[in-house]
């Protein structure tokens, strides 16, 4: 059984609309009744469980954990790996965290399942960790000289020649990766006082723990459209608003899925910028 995880906290409507659009695309991939993927479930971790009470998903109330999982509010993206760790322990099955600002494309479930499947390597069974895609080497040069001690890996130091970062729009892990997630949280906590300087600290932490532990990373990019960049999110806000029903509990797929066409995005952002600029003269 593979549990797909979504996260909603803070009550911002625009992020909930993104989650709804992404979840609808995932449901379309899994089949109307999950019939195309009977071994998959969808779970929403949220501080507002009543919002999703009528959706055909499992809901986990995290309202009592927000403070602790965010490092007393110092770094809210810490909640993401905390959710993944909780799900691994709660369900004792493979889980795949999905960022809300995403669109699931055909073939996604098959690709994720195949890349997360245990592989026999020299008589040793290993499981890769699924992530969205590689970003860059030496992502935070100011961390040169940073050292800490991790619960499972022990001594760690940031290496300007080897340290790397993958995008964590997807995090697909198995129960054997519980130590990986525990070390990821410990890594974040070692830098949490400086988290404002490293906005993607959770990505770095997981990527570095995977590198040092020599855990394979399997990228999923073609079947997972992650539109986290600013211009794309502005464009998608309009696409979501015009393509989905006003009924929050209606999870019917749109007639056409949004396409990340370069010129469409530029054109809409130009229109958006001009219209918002001119609106200031009419107030």
What is this structure, in a nutshell?
This protein folds into two domains: 2-226, Spore Coat Polysaccharide Biosynthesis Protein SpsA, Chain A; 230-282, no CATH class. Helix content is 36%, strand content 23%. The chain is built from eight helices and 13 strands.
Which regions have little confidence, pLDDT < 50, spanning 5+ residues? none
Oligomer: single chain
CATH topology (fold) name of the largest domain: Spore Coat Polysaccharide Biosynthesis Protein SpsA, Chain A
Helical content stands at 25-40%
Overall pLDDT score: 92
Strand tally is 13
Number of helices: 8
Q: Specify the CATH homologous superfamily of the largest domain.
A: Spore Coat Polysaccharide Biosynthesis Protein SpsA, Chain A
Quote the distance from N terminus to C terminus: 54 Å
Q: Which terms would index this structure?
A:
23% strand; Spore Coat Polysaccharide Biosynthesis Protein SpsA, Chain A; 36% helix; 283 residues; 2 domains; alpha/beta; seven-stranded mixed beta sheet
Provide an overview of this structure:
- The chain has 283 residues and is α/β, with parallel strands linked by helices.
- The chain folds into 2 domains: 2-226, Spore Coat Polysaccharide Biosynthesis Protein SpsA, Chain A (Alpha-Beta Complex); 230-282, no CATH class.
- 36% of the residues lie in helices and 23% in strands.
- It contains 8 helices and 13 strands.
- The chain has a 7-stranded mixed β-sheet, with helices on both faces. A two-stranded antiparallel ribbon has the order 5-13.
- Strand 6 (119-121) and strand 7 (124-126) form a beta hairpin.
- Helix 7 (230-243) crosses helix 8 (262-279).
- The termini are far apart.
């Amino acid at each position: 059984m593979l549990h797909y995880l979504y996260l909603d906290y803070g009550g911002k409507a625009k992020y909930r609309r993104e989650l709804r659009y992404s979840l609808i695309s995932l449901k379309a991939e899994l089949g109307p009744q999950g019939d195309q993927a009977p071994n998959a479930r969808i779970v929403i971790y949220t501080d507002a469980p009543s919002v999703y009470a009528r959706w055909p998903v499992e809901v986990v109330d995290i309202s009592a954990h927000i403070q602790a999982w965010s490092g007393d509010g110092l770094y809210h993206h810490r909640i993401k790996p905390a959710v993944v760790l909780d799900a691994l322990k709660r369900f004792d099955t493979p889980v795949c965290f999905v960022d809300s600002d995403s669109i699931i494309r055909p073939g996604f479930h098959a690709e994720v399942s195949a890349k997360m499947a245990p592989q026999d390597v020299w008589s040793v069974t290993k499981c890769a960790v699924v992530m969205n895609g590689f970003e860059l080497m030496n992502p935070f040069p100011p961390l040169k000289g940073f050292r800490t001690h991790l619960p499972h890996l022990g001594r760690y130091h940031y290496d300007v020649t080897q340290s790397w970062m993958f995008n964590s729009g997807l995090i697909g892990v198995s129960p054997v990766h519980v130590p990986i997630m525990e070390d990821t949280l410990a890594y974040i906590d070692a830098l949490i006082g400086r988290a404002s300087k490293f906005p993607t600290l959770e990505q770095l932490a997981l990527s570095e723990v995977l590198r040092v532990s020599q855990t394979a990373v399997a990228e999923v990019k073609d079947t997972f459209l992650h539109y986290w960049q600013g211009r794309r999110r502005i464009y998608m806000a309009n696409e979501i608003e015009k393509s989905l029903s006003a009924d929050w509990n209606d999870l019917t797929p749109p007639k056409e899925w949004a396409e990340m066409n370069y010129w469409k995005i530029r054109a809409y952002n130009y229109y958006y910028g001009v219209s918002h600029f001119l609106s200031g003269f009419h107030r």
